[in-house]
Amino acid sequence: MSVRKILKIGDPILRKVSEPVHPDELQTKEFKKLIRDMFDTMRFAEGVGLAAPQIGVLKQLVVVGTDPKEDFPEESKVPEKIIINPVITPLTDKVDGNWEGCLSVPGMRGLVERPNKIRMKWMDEKGNEHDQIIEGYQAVVYQHECDHLHGVLYVDKLKSTKLFGFNDSLEHSGPILD
């Protein structure tokens, strides 16, 4: 198990745009270790997802995966997935508001509205191309994590600064993204 340090808001690396992963990198020991380290770090921090820039690696790589949250069992399950070089296209103008949190903005959350139906194209760790329509909570998770690849944090998308604060000071009505 190798847990890496998660960068926090204010670190300039979190605001940089990540480079695409080249297919030749996929089979290297370093890339495979990076993926393992990201899953170890995400699980250790009890996150839903983790983007490579959050551990200081400016590559278009995201890992996600969590068991359902106790309070919201069906809507909060996110299957384990490795997402490389994602491209997200919103498929609706309809948005869902979710109380998002982030491992890079610890102890806080805010209300963010995002499209609840997207099309995501990506490559997996074996180089296979994927193209999928994704809805609901998973669509929100993927958008949140993939934003990191473009130097964007959820705090940049708050519905209102009045709907942002420390976890122990806010009431919410849904699962919190990490």
Automatic annotation (TrEMBL):
Fe cation binds at C102, H144, H148. Its EC number is 3.5.1.88. Its cofactor is Fe(2+). InterPro entries: Peptide_deformylase (IPR023635), Peptide_deformylase_sf (IPR036821). One of its GO terms (molecular function) is peptide deformylase activity. Binds 1 Fe(2+) ion. Gene3D superfamilies: Peptide deformylase. One of its GO terms (biological process) is translation. Keywords: Hydrolase, Iron, Metal-binding, Protein biosynthesis. SUPFAM superfamilies: Peptide deformylase. The active site is at E145. It catalyses: N-terminal N-formyl-L-methionyl-[peptide] + H2O = N-terminal L-methionyl-[peptide] + formate. It holds the Pfam family Pep_deformylase. Belongs to the polypeptide deformylase family. NCBIfam families: pept_deformyl, PRK00150.1-3. Removes the formyl group from the N-terminal Met of newly synthesized proteins. Requires at least a dipeptide for an efficient rate of reaction. N-terminal L-methionine is a prerequisite for activity but the enzyme has broad specificity at other positions. This is Peptide deformylase. The lineage of its organism: Bacteria, Pseudomonadati, Spirochaetota, Spirochaetia, Leptospirales.
